[in-house]
Amino acid sequence: KRKRMMDSVGHYARPELLQLLLDNRVTAPLASVAPFSPAVIKRTETDGQSDASLD
């Protein structure tokens, strides 16, 4: 009821846009060769601010 009140034109009332598929086949777990290490990205240009969130 609450969703219908907020969605007056019916954008969320479209069952053809949502589909859930389950794959019940047995599979092996994901294994990686090397441990994950995130890449460090250095700033090459600056606008004079020490805080990158101000960019």
Principal-axes geometry comes out as: flat
What's the alpha carbon Rg, rounded to whole Å? Answer: 23 Å
How would you state the average pLDDT, rounded? 71
In terms of quaternary structure, the protein is single chain
Q: Helices and strands, in N-to-C order?
A: H
Task: Report, as a whole number of angstroms, the end-to-end distance.
Answer: 43 Å
How would you describe this protein?
The chain is low in regular secondary structure and 55 residues long. The chain is 9% helix and 0% strand. The chain contains one helix and no strands. It has one helix spanning 2-6. The chain is flat, with a radius of gyration of 23 Å.
Topology summary:
Elements: H1 2-6
Question: In a nutshell, what does this entry contain?
Answer:
The chain is largely without helices or strands.
Features:
little secondary structure, 1 helix, 0% strand
